[in-house]
Thiamine-monophosphate kinase
Amino acid sequence: MINTGFPLDGPTLGEIGEDAVIRSIIEASPSAVNGDDAAVLHPPSPNSRMVATTDMIVEGRHFRSDLTTPFLLGRKAVVQNYADIEAMGARPLAALLSFSAPSTTPAATVTEIARGIGAELDKYGTELVGGDVTAGQNLVMSITAIGSLGGNRPPLTLAGARAGQTVVAHGRIGYSAAGLELLEAGITIPEELEPLAHAYQSPELTPGCGMVARSAGATSMTDNSDGLLHDVGVLAQRSGVRIDLRANAIAPDKLLVQAGELLGVDPWKWVCEGGEDHTLIGTLQGEAPVGFRPIGTVHKPSSETGSVTTAAFGIPVTIDGNAPQYTRGWESFS
Amino acid sequence: MINTGFPLDGPTLGEIGEDAVIRSIIEASPSAVNGDDAAVLHPPSPNSRMVATTDMIVEGRHFRSDLTTPFLLGRKAVVQNYADIEAMGARPLAALLSFSAPSTTPAATVTEIARGIGAELDKYGTELVGGDVTAGQNLVMSITAIGSLGGNRPPLTLAGARAGQTVVAHGRIGYSAAGLELLEAGITIPEELEPLAHAYQSPELTPGCGMVARSAGATSMTDNSDGLLHDVGVLAQRSGVRIDLRANAIAPDKLLVQAGELLGVDPWKWVCEGGEDHTLIGTLQGEAPVGFRPIGTVHKPSSETGSVTTAAFGIPVTIDGNAPQYTRGWESFS
């Protein structure tokens, strides 16, 4: 079953007013530390470091209100921020929400977004600790996530990949992009392909997988938010390495192949260029940690596997040693 | 001298692309911890607590591009967030920026905003540690500020005011509102009134004043962002007290009176209803701390000074024992 659509009626933000809007958000996603000028958080352990990240979501740019629901949008907004916290090997602690929408927006839209935010935050035992609401031309929200990096190991950075390591991934690759194209096609989506639409509307992130990878010795990590090859390419560039992905480890699965046939799209495009799966991708020496699978290997920057060079196709990533066919990533101002 | 206006030409965000936009922001407001999935921060002392707040700024709602400059807008965006950190008695540590604007926006607009942000962050020895940029219908930015609350004293909350305390203020009251009306009037602003316009374009916040008040024994604090009586009213309500302000301590000064005469406005309106001065207002037993001045007193909720009751005018705040004439505050969805 696929739910789509935003509330169309009921009292509006302008009718209920700012105080009631804020109250409805706090009710839907409660926290004892929300409601003052700023939220005071207690670090979970004395030697932990703070980690912070932010993402902005713009209606018409990052989502269409006819292709998702406000509840699922709220969940997804948290996932995309918490994935960035996990990708440092850290543990999410709290989130803040900035929100603007026209005064004519049904108040239920905001309540549902806040419910979705609260539901996802709950999975982590975390809370919405602060925010700001305001009128604006269209729906724009910005979530900031704060996390905690415990212990003495370094964070998992984009620059931490080293030649000889294994590339590992946790979660689906290409599902979100395929799901979006299915939803955009305006067709009745076959029941067996619904997991693709769900992956787009509300990608799944397993709490703690970034910390697991860090404990297992991972040294670099990111999530595929802008496209697999784009994001792996950034990691390879920052680390000064070349990454070779194994075709049979990332090959489109049955669902992606079926969706590709239905829409007349090469499913490899979704795998290579699709973002928003928020699948964690890291590198480490040796075996893949629990929940992760190997998808490639890290090499020295000067290729030794043949004629492939970085300059030939822009990013230092190959698939089975060859230049990939699809390398585009998300570009914010295109 | 009053500067106004945004860049009108030069390369656009769409022309230079996301990577170059991000680079220009990081160059204008540099930080060694910016640029990964999330920023890792070191707490300044082992027993400190994190403090976080966020604010959203929408073009046409919170600012007009013909009444300010992108540099001043960047500074102000930091001040309004850092004032919330100071209002907890905490020390600002870092900021994150989410930013959306049409692809046709001159790239110089973003660079100038980032320069303003960097200039203000610099005053605190703090850095822009992360962010997100995206295309959108209009310019919307959200700043999140992170601070540190050291030591064992409790934070300065909205609920901390107690009967018998003195109300103290640090900074101007009413200047920003008067400055906005002068700028909106489209007149040539007399040179002696320029400080009012500057207060609107870029309010001043003295680093450390919140910590000073906390050290001096303040128990509650806020800043006048939405209007003096509104914000003091929220503090009084949350604390379960009534606050009486001294008319001669908050009376419009020479500049406000002169601006009122010029525009035909009662300057008391700017004092009572004007926000965005981001002046810290707190309560404590005894003398005003360095940099603060007494502006009123805290009383038990049942008024003992006469016939004034909360119900009569909505908020538990009086001026010299009387119901104030101007009590409106900023309403986000009006």
